[in-house]
Structures are given as C-alpha cells and as structure tokens.
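Form 12-C: Joint structure prediction
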Amino acid sequence: MTSSFHPPVRTLMGPGPSDVNPRILEALSRPTIGHLDPQFVALMDDIKRLLQFAFQTSNELTLPVSAPGSAGMEACFVNLLEPGDKVIVCQNGVFGGRMKENVERCGAEAIMVMDDWGMPVDPAKVEAALKANPDAKVLAFVHAETSTGAYSDAHRLCALAKEHGCLSIVDTVTSLGGIEVDVDGWGADAVYSGTQKCLSCVPGIAPVTFSPRAAEVIRNRRTAVQSWFLDMNLIMGYWGGNTKRAYHHTAPVNAMYALHESLIILEAEGLQASWQRHALNHKALATGLNAMGLEITVDESHCLPQLNSVAIPDGVDDAAVRSQLLNNYQLEIGAGLGALAGKVWRIGLMGYGSSQKNVLFCLQALESTLAGMGAKIHTGVAAAAALAVYAD
Amino acid sequence: MTSSFHPPVRTLMGPGPSDVNPRILEALSRPTIGHLDPQFVALMDDIKRLLQFAFQTSNELTLPVSAPGSAGMEACFVNLLEPGDKVIVCQNGVFGGRMKENVERCGAEAIMVMDDWGMPVDPAKVEAALKANPDAKVLAFVHAETSTGAYSDAHRLCALAKEHGCLSIVDTVTSLGGIEVDVDGWGADAVYSGTQKCLSCVPGIAPVTFSPRAAEVIRNRRTAVQSWFLDMNLIMGYWGGNTKRAYHHTAPVNAMYALHESLIILEAEGLQASWQRHALNHKALATGLNAMGLEITVDESHCLPQLNSVAIPDGVDDAAVRSQLLNNYQLEIGAGLGALAGKVWRIGLMGYGSSQKNVLFCLQALESTLAGMGAKIHTGVAAAAALAVYAD
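Section 2 - Result
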C-alpha cells in the first residue's frame, strides 16, 4: 500500500511556484461546493471584480482560465487567431518562443522580432516590423520574461500595436502583482497571467482579460475556436454577465477559493504598496549579492524585482550549488532556462516570498554554500549590506 | 475591502463535484514545493503507478492532465486526430455531443451513431457504422453518461473498434472508481477521466491513459498537435520514462497531492470493494425511492450506481425542490441536463459520497420536501426500505 505524501517545507525562491501564503493554503482546503451553487456563483463575481482590480481594467471579459499559465497563453492565441492570420511575435527569452509555437499551431504566420536574452523588447524593431507588415493582426510580447528576469515597455508596445491597427497579446505571468500591470492604461487587448508567481497562490490557474475590441473579434470569428475547452464564446456563458450561468466545464472550485484569498490579500495591501515591497526586497538582495561579488545579469533599467538572474561564478558547479541549497537549507532557487541554462541562477522574490526574511536567508545560505565549495566570494558582508538597504 | 469566502458545508449528491474526503482536502493544503523538486518527481511516479492501478492498465503513457475532464477529452482528440480524419462518435447524452464538437474542431469528420438518452450505445449500430466507414480512424464513445446515468458496454465497443482497425477513445469521467474500468481488458486506446466524481477529489484534473498503439500514432503524426498545452509529445518529456524531466508547464502541485491521496484511498479499499459499495448504496437508494413512489428512469441493466436519474413527478416544481434541498438541508442534487432538463433529477452516490449516511439523508430530505409541497408520494416507508437492503 502506498503512503500519504508529506512534502518537505521548502522556501521557494525560484521562478515559481513561489512560497504560498498559509492563508491561501487554508482557503484551498475549505469544503468543496458545487460549481453552479448560488454561493459559488457569487464567489465568481467577486473573483472577476478582484481580477479587474489586479489587472487595472474594466474589461467585462476578465476571468480565470481553469488551467495553468500556458493554457492562459493558448486561450489568448486560439481565440484571437484564425488560419492565415499574421502575428508579430517578440522573442527575448523562452516564452516568446512558446508564443511562436502557439501562433503556428493556429495555422497563422509568426513574424519574429528577436532581441537578446536579458534585454527588453526593442520598440524600434517592433515599429519596423509593424510598418513592414501592414496586414499583421496581432502584436504579441512578454511583459516580464521569466526565463531572463527582464521586463519590456508594455505601454509603448501596446501603443505601437494600436497605431498600426493591431491587437496586442501580453504575457504578464510573472509581472502581475510584482510590478505595474495597467491593462486599460496600456490599451492591451488580451492579457494572461498565472497564479503561482506574485499572487503567491498555488499553481494551476491562469487569469485572463480581453478588451471589448478583442471580445468583439472573438464573437465575430469566421471559424470555430480550435479548442473547445478554451473557447471564450462558450466560457462567457458560464462566467459572463447577467444571464443564467450555463454549464461549460466543472470549475476547479477549491482553486477558486485560493485565488480569491490571494486577490483579497493583494487588495488589502494595495497594488502600489505591493510593487514597492517587491522593489525594496530586490534592492536589498541585489546589494547583498553585489557585496558578495555576484552580479545580476540584467541591467537595473529593465530588471524585474521579482526575478533576479544571477551569473554563476566561473568554476562553480551550478547543479551542486542548487542541490546543496535544497538539501541543506530546504531552499529552492531556479536554474537557467534555454539559452541561459548553466549560466545563471534565477532567484525569485515573488508575492508572499518577497520578504526581508527570505532575502537574508537566501544571502546567507548562498554565501555559506559557495564559500564551502571554495568559490571566490567576499564573505561576512552580504547580510549587512542588505540590511543597510532596509535601514535607509 | 473584500472578505474571505467561507463556503457552506454542503452534502454534494449531484453529478459532481462529489463530496470530497476530508483526508483529500487536508492533503491539498500541504506546503507547495517546486514542480521540478526531486520529491515532486518521485510523487509523479507514484501518481502514474496509482493511475495505472485505477485504470487497470500497464500503459506507459498514463498521467493526469493539468486541467478539468473536458480538457482530458480534448487531449485525447487533438493528439489522435489530424485534419481530414474520420471518427465514429456515439451519442446517447450530452457528452457524445461534446465529442462531436472536439472532432470537428480538429478539422476531422464525425459520423454520428445516435441512441436515445438514457439508453446504452447500441453495438449493432456501431458495427454497421464501422462497416459503412472502413476508412474511419477512431471510434469514440462515453462509457458512463453523466447526463443520463446510463453506462455502455465498453468491452464490446472497444473490441468492435479493434476488429475494424480503429482506435478507441473512451470517456470514463463518471465511471472510474465507481464501476469497472478495465483499460487493458477492453483494449481501449485513449481513455480520460476526472477527479471530481468517484475519486472524491477536488475538481480540476483529468487522468488520461494512452495505449502503446495510440502513443505510436501520436509520435508519428504528420502535423503538430493543435494544442501546445495538451501536446502529449511535449508532456511525455515532463511525465515520461527515465529521462530527465523537461519543463513543459508548471504542474498544479497541490492538486497533485490531492489526487495522490484520493488514489491511495482507492488502493486501500480495493477496486472490487469500491464497485461493490457503489452497487449496494445504489440499490438502497433505488429501493427507497421506489418505496416512496419515485422512479429511476434508466433500466437496471445499464444503470450507473453512482448517478441516479430520477423522474420528476408530474406537477412538482423542479427548481423549487432543488432550491429547498439546498437551503433547508445543505443538500445538492443535480438538475437534468440538455434533453433531460426539467424531466429528471440526478442523484450522485460517488466515491466518498456513496455511503449509507448519504442514502438515508437524501431519502429523508427528499421525502420531507416533496410531502411539504403536496406531491403524491408514499411517506414513512423509504428509509425502512433502504435499510432493509443493507440488512440483507
């Protein structure tokens, strides 16, 4: 007979899932009710309103997709695209590449705008691509690249899309709650996120929002959305407006309790306060790392405070460090992904995990581990340097 | 500021989600760890083995899709079908219709075999359709129709598919754990289920299994799977074999804890014992309902013990009864769906909810509610009739 699984208690400072607030774990385990229960329907309305708050939007079509962030990405592409459409896709990390895969699987054409990993998307290149492709329907880009730790100027990119008559699709998986996401201010058309990053909720759900213009495009498609599960025309019948809720699929009820709890925690803190907290803890971590002699690989002008890519010092065994941190400190930091595998560690300071306690713990665990392996770092100075940031 | 959501404690006797075992809710709230954590990878292996046990299969490609049952259905169709393929789809309720939608959204053709709602799929009609369409690639049918409460002869239907060189896709969302599901014995090729029925787990995850023959078809496709998120060629890299786990999407870690707990509960009880318990509680409920003067609309020869469709007596207000049960007893029973809306109630006795306590509670609440509304039923006899079944 198989035994119950009792996970170790880790500190999650990788690229996500991030440390989950215990309040959210408790909410998750509340008694399950039906997905058409009047009280669940009222909860859905609450979640919708709270997501509008988090995304800073009045979009009516704002809801959580019942699947992880990748499915949120797919929901945006399959609903807006039809075969033969042309999409300008910006790639400056792993997730732009995934966007290309999504475009092509819709029978659409992806025009790639490439930037170096760790750099933001270059608006000049995007403008050139928009001019060269006046028939493009959509501009797609990643606001916060989880694979590199760089963010791009979403306001400028969405404005360029609009100037050239394009819809915009924006990935805010890692940004939502950690840095400013301003869907209406940007004029973005389709935006998706995930629960397991700066919302500090369990992984598995993808908040999405569509502008009225995008919703109109979805309603007036020539062809059916290729995914039944992600078809917003059907999902609107369950999540939408004032009409009777029509059964589409069985909502992940308990995950909705958790998402709701994570959003009220964000509401209580306030968006500005949350962004400031993320910025402060990033500054403390970066200062401590620099004092130790380690470098963040992304320039401060476009560095995500919630995801810090740290160059692995020469001669240091990447996997051995991560493995020692996990085994000796129960601390998870992230490996590099794609082109950055073996070159960087990704240290997350997301949501509930963006705290002074985690900053100090990570610095001390990393310092002790690297020193123990004979790496050439400055010891005994990182913690004080970080603490000085908080004292300012 | 928004308040936390504290759901009422319901008894869930609808078509699912069913009552969740408290052990599973507790497992759900255990601390989140990373989706590439060595301990999580070990848990994944355990889940895979336990799903093989539940499905009665040795299929290597057996895993939980990170989304609800509808996505499990879609995973089977989008992976096996390519544009232009022909599929024989059996429809005897809502979910056969959803299969047709899936087939058409793959650019494939659906040949429908229709049976009356509440009747099983007729193997003679299926055989005729297979003979008339020698170029069909797949036979798809629902083992346990959640919309009607009828089950079909999966063994016979899968054998017919094989005789005619077709792959089979089988919906076992409501059957898994409640009646016999024998994937290898049937020779089924792609089978999907859900967590929120007889596994008594929270909704949101879809166990699937693919035969070696189906896996071969997936590996040798001419075209890419239209869904990136559900592409088994990619998912195999995360869930598959002995190789290093490649990141695909962030697994819903806590939902995996819950699924694991639900499967070890099933393992400890044993498949046969679970089926017998479902059969016994169904018999007691049916006997009590009959004593009251109510009728189950599906013939006993193909009636699902876990989902009982009860004819709404003439003159009785469907919605008022369900609403009184919910408000006065915190008891949820299901409404009719599709063609059966307003004609039947669907009373679930699934997994943890298939218990003597729930049978007696439901009979008494229904009797009292109907009597209070002046319905012509026999009172004071149902509970004793049900108890006599247990005493046998």
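Section 3 - Comments
Residues 271-391 of chain B form a domain with the Aspartate Aminotransferase, domain 1 fold (CATH 3.90.1150.10). The first strand of chain B starts at residue 11 and ends at 13.
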